[in-house]
Amino acid sequence: MIFCSSISKGSSLSDWYEQRRIRDMERRMDYDIRRYKVMLYSKTYCKYSRGIKQILAKYDIQDMKVVELDLEPDMEKMQDHLRDVSGSRTVPQLYIGGKYIGGHEETREKDDSGELEKLLLRAYAIRHPRREKRLSSFV
C-alpha cells in the first residue's frame, strides 16, 4: 500500500492517526487563539477560572470563546500545547487579540490598572464608551 509507506518504521497506522489527530487539535487551538478577539482556556471547577470569568463579565465582550479543558477528552494534550504556546500549562489562560495575557492574577492586575480595558479596546473586543455615546446622539 502506498499510503502506509509514509508511516515510519516501527509505528502503526493507529499511531499515525493519533499523531494526526493531535496535530489537528493543536492547529484548531492555534486557529481559535488567532480567530477570537478573546480566547479563554479554563476549567469548570477552578476558582481562578471562575475569578477571571467574573473579571471579564464586567465588559461587554463582542467575540469571545471559552474552552473548558476539563470537559475535553484531550485535556492533557491541550494543556501540553498551551505550555508550548504560552510557557505555562496551568489555567486559566487568557488571550486577547491573539496574544497571551496571562492567568487570573495577571488579568486582575491589568483590570485594576485599566490596562485590560485598553487591551480589549485595541483588539476591538469591546466598544469604546465615548464612541458609543457619540453614535447614540445621532439616533
Automatic annotation (TrEMBL):
CDD domains: GRX_GRXh_1_2_like. GO terms for molecular function: glutathione disulfide oxidoreductase activity. It holds the Pfam family Glutaredoxin. GO terms for biological process: cellular response to oxidative stress. InterPro entries: Glutaredoxin (IPR002109), Glutaredoxin_euk/vir (IPR011899), Glutaredoxin_subgr (IPR014025), Thioredoxin-like_sf (IPR036249). It comes from the Eukaryota. Residues 38-101 form the Glutaredoxin domain. Transmembrane segments: none annotated. GO terms for cellular component: cytoplasm. PANTHER family: GLUTAREDOXIN 2 (PTHR45694), GLUTAREDOXIN-1-RELATED (PTHR45694:SF18). This is Glutaredoxin domain-containing protein. It comes from Toxocara canis.
